[in-house]
């Protein structure tokens, strides 16, 4: 894994992109309403003095929310698989984490180096892969009317 990959939970003390340990996310490290400090260029967030790649700000909010749901479910699956000692399930869950992190723009080619079309293709491709691997609950796609 690269230095720009704070989510490698196989390492002791691994942290997510918001500096928190495990699936509890950023809310465990700071107040629920507090936004993390950003670098002047907006490319990174700074948590406890460490810099992490920021989520692509061009993601539509509904897409971002779906990706975060996939990410959290995948992180829970990693925890369950490692607890159970199921190496295959762990690999599969880590693959889902990777898809979500790349789709969010937190891994892979930096989002600020991609065109709008490349950014859209990135999240559409990885979201479709995640939906195929772990389909969302039906209520996520139902329109209110």
Decide which structural class fits the backbone: mainly alpha
Order of helical and strand elements: EEEHHH
Strand percent estimate? 5-15%
Characterize the overall form.
Answer: globular
- Poorly predicted regions: 1-29, 140-145
Percent in helix: 40-55%
Mean pLDDT: 81
Number of continuous helical runs: 3
Largest sheet: 3 strands, antiparallel
> Taking Cα atoms only, what radius of gyration do you get, to the nearest Å?
15 Å
Distance between the termini: 45 Å
Give the tally of β-strands. Answer: 3
Tally of individual domains: 1
Strand order of the largest sheet: 1-2-3
Question: What's the short story on this structure?
Answer:
By secondary structure, the protein is mainly α.
Describe the structure.
This protein has 145 residues and is mainly alpha-helical. The chain has one domain (22-135). 41% of the residues lie in helices and 7% in strands. It contains three helices and three strands, in the order βββααα. It has helices spanning 61-84, 87-104, 116-133, and strands at residues 37-38, 44-47, 50-53. A three-stranded antiparallel β-sheet has the order 1-2-3, with no helix packed on it. A hairpin with a 2-residue loop joins strand 2 (44-47) and strand 3 (50-53). Helix 1 crosses helix 3 (116-133). It is globular. The chain starts with 36 loop residues before the first strand and ends in a 12-residue tail after the last helix. Mean pLDDT is 81; it is low at 1-29 and 140-145.
